[in-house]
């Protein structure tokens, strides 16, 4: 297939582009490099530096079979203090992209959505039928795009799938996580092992879990990428589908910390701090729909996630 990948210079986008190329697809990456890295775009992909707001000429010239849409602002804290940035970038930009898809009659779209659309649900594991109740502008902006896709798919015959990620980690060779600032648990723990930070922090040790720390779902970025390739094949004209992507079980903060200690051989000292306001006990995905709709299930566990992330960070 001849494909467009927005945000293909970012962490997940670059991994998926590398998988698409290895599978024999042609890929054009659109990225404004506001958070991505030019050297993260795999060799073999055509690169266009631009905002997705301006993508119509590129899509009109390419005779594309599908779009994979990763481009977005994704810092929760920033979305709380600057919600206007998230509406303008994630919602207005995605609207411009969808209009370009409609006008150029591209039949398929796979969207990088998020578990943040669910907010802080009481139930766990979280299914696709769990009510969406985002707690910040980031989650709300992604939910707005999910809803746009639903109506565009029905009205214009687009086959659209929203993949709602939980926590993603790991790397694929030279393609890995390079966020600034870094807000994710695993790379922050590994930064301690690498000597870039003195200690790690554990927020909350009195949760009702096996060891008192919060339970979260972690998925290897390679498994995540496989789901995108499958979604391209399974998208149905005129239908929008939402599919959670997660391990289905989850790991506590202490279990992640111990995995990082085991992989790195470093003690990774950690300070215990009170719970952060709004942190739920458990955020774990049900991945049964992924198996039913895509024939997908995760193959790589926590040890592989940490090991691959550590190899990438040291390189």
UniProtKB/TrEMBL annotation:
Metabolic or biological pathway, per its Swiss-Prot or TrEMBL entry: Carbohydrate metabolism; galactose metabolism
What cofactors does this protein use?
A: NAD(+)
Question: Which keywords belong to this entry?
Answer: Carbohydrate metabolism, Isomerase, NAD
What does it catalyze?
Answer: UDP-alpha-D-glucose = UDP-alpha-D-galactose
Work out whether the entry's keyword set contains ATP-binding. Answer: no
Q: Does the keyword NAD apply?
A: yes
What CDD domains has UniProt attached to this entry?
Answer: UDP_G4E_1_SDR_e (cd05247)
Sequence ranges assigned to domain NAD-dependent epimerase/dehydratase in this UniProt record: 4-246
Enzyme Commission designation: 5.1.3.2
Q: Which family does it belong to?
A: Belongs to the NAD(P)-dependent epimerase/dehydratase family.
Extract the PANTHER family matched here.
UDP-ARABINOSE 4-EPIMERASE 1, UDP-GLUCOSE 4-EPIMERASE
The record's note on quaternary structure and interaction partners says: Homodimer.
Q: What is this protein called?
A: UDP-glucose 4-epimerase
User: What organism is recorded for this protein?
Assistant: Brevibacterium ammoniilyticum
């Amino acid at each position: 297939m001849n494909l467009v990948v927005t945000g293909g210079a970012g962490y997940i986008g670059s991994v998926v582009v590398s998988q698409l190329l290895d599978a024999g697809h042609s890929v054009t990456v659109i990225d404004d490099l506001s958070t991505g890295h030019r050297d993260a775009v795999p060799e073999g992909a055509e690169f266009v530096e631009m905002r997705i707001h301006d993508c119509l000429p590129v899509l009109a010239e390419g005779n594309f079979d599908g779009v994979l849409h990763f481009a977005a602002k994704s810092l929760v804290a920033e979305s709380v203090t600057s919600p206007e940035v998230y509406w303008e970038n994630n919602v207005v930009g995605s609207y411009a992209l969808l209009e370009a898809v409609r006008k150029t009659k591209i039949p398929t779209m796979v969207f990088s959505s998020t578990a943040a659309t669910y907010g802080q649900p009481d139930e766990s594991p979280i299914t696709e039928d769990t009510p969406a109740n985002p707690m910040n502008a980031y989650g709300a902006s992604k939910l707005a795009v999910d809803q746009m896709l639903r109506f565009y798919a029905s009205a214009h015959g687009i086959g659209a799938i929203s993949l709602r990620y939980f926590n993603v980690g790991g790397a694929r060779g030279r393609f890995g996580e390079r966020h600034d600032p870094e807000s994710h648990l695993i790379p922050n723990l590994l930064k301690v092992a690498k000597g870039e930070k003195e200690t790690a922090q554990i927020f909350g040790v009195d949760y009702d879990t096996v060891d008192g720390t919060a339970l979260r779902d972690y998925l290897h970025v390679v498994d995540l990428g496989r789901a995108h390739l499958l979604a391209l094949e399974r998208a149905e004209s005129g239908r929008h589908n939402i599919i959670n992507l997660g391990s289905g079980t989850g790991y506590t903060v202490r279990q992640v910390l111990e995995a990082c200690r085991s992989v790195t051989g470093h003690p990774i000292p950690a300070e215990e701090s009170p719970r952060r306001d709004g942190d739920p006990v458990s955020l774990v995905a049900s991945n049964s729909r992924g198996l039913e709709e895509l024939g997908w299930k995760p193959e790589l566990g926590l040890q592989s996630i940490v090991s691959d992330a550590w190899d990438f960070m040291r390189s």
